[in-house]
Amino acid sequence: MSDTAQIVTRFAPSPTGYLHIGGARTALFNWLYARGRGGKFLLRIEDTDRARSTPEATAAILKGLEWLGLDWDDEPISQFARKDRHAEVAREMLEKGRAYKCFSTTEEIAAWREANPRQPFQSPWRDATDLPDAPYAIRLKAPRTGETVIADSVQGEVRVANDQLDDMVLLRSDGTPTYMLAVVVDDHDMGVTHVIRGDDHLTNTARQIQIYDAMGWPRPVFAHIPLIHGEDGKKLSKRHGAVGLHEFAALGYPAGAMRNYLARLGWSHGDDELFDDGQAREWFDLSGIGRAPARLDFKKLEHVSGHHIGAMEDTSLLSALEDFLAETGGEPLTPRQKERLCPALTVLKQKARTLPQLLDQARFALIERPVDIDEKAAKALDPVSRGMLKSLTAAVQHASWTRDALEQAAKAVAEEYGVGLGKLAGPLRAALAGRTATPSVFDMMTALGREESLARLHDQTELAG
């Protein structure tokens, strides 16, 4: 490939289910590599398995990529829609003598394999000249000697003895192309320069290289990335928890955090753990991908998520919260709730690691009067405590509504009653939020504002007599 040629990568999922977290990482790696070099990132839906491919799965994949923030160039390509082109290439190889007609039946092939265990099938029709008028498959006339060498950017040089590979079928007897042929033809026609995919495809690559060579097409750069394992080191499955990208979205990890975490899952740039999209695009390179399987670590994911939530602009964070509620069936925020939530986000986002955690901490700003006091918080609201709240209400009535001013006023009231600030914070927390686990009482008061805070205090001081 010329050094001046435009980089073209692709993501080619099969629409048979949700977008797996491993597929999402593969898409991200392709996206980062292309976007960081001014290249193109293409999308191909490998929907040749008509029995399992569904429009709903395709829609789910596209939705997952959009949520993750990965944009693609051009319209997504349907592999099935290109079946005539695939067949055309198979017949071209036949004309060039790079492939041949094979008339072996399924039963004959099975019998041969039984008689020759652990050997690749050798068709008796490879060099035949007297051909019958019968249905046939088109097989690749693969080299029988030597090696097929894969120069892999992650795995290094991988060598496969050609006598271990059979003459694979390119076009079935019913005229349908095989997946192996379709992938090569599509990648060539789409101008793909770099094939970045899971290392479970490595065994297919030697065969696919033989098709490139048979057609005289330039090989793309191959980079086979290790799969993702669970925390126990075993292949990732549902027993490890969330495995679909939609599940991580539903758990409340922001898309930016997922991009950071997934990029770091199997790839590294020195000791950098936390970075933004611009840095990821600038730094990402195939040489940084390790050969060992990456391990999904939910604690590390939460750490990354907390960093990104804390770094988000308040308006972006509010939008992310609204999207999260819409996706998970939560009640949409009212204008009044958003008005109270916005000033609270600056403080709350520094401690939350997921969007549900943030919403839980923000509950005080989302509830309406009269505040429902839970049983534990109600214990802090005895007559003496309500008296202190009444004194505090009077003290802050005309005070400057800043955190420092409110804290000084509260300390003065606590001293007046001969108690520590903590003795006042408990009933104040109950009056403002209705429960004992909340953000700082002064952060809540500044977020709620003077009118709402005093109204909530008034609701409780009225009961003081």
TrEMBL record:
UniProt-annotated binding residues for ATP: K238
Gene Ontology molecular functions: ATP binding; glutamate-tRNA ligase activity; tRNA binding; zinc ion binding
GO biological process: glutamyl-tRNA aminoacylation
Gene3D superfamilies: 1.10.10.350, HUPs
InterPro entries registered for this protein in UniProt: aa-tRNA-synth_I_cd-bd, aa-tRNA-synth_I_codon-bd_sub2, aa-tRNA-synth_I_CS, aa_tRNA-synth_I_cd-bd_sf, Glu-tRNA-ligase_bac/mito, Glu/Gln-tRNA-synth, Glu/Gln-tRNA-synth_Ib_cat-dom, GluQ/Sye
Enzyme Commission number(s): 6.1.1.17
Domain named Aminoacyl-tRNA synthetase class I anticodon-binding: residues: 321-459
Function, as annotated: Catalyzes the attachment of glutamate to tRNA(Glu) in a two-step reaction: glutamate is first activated by ATP to form Glu-AMP and then transferred to the acceptor end of tRNA(Glu).
Entry protein name: Glutamate--tRNA ligase
Source organism of the structure: Paracoccus methylarcula
Chain's gene name: gltX
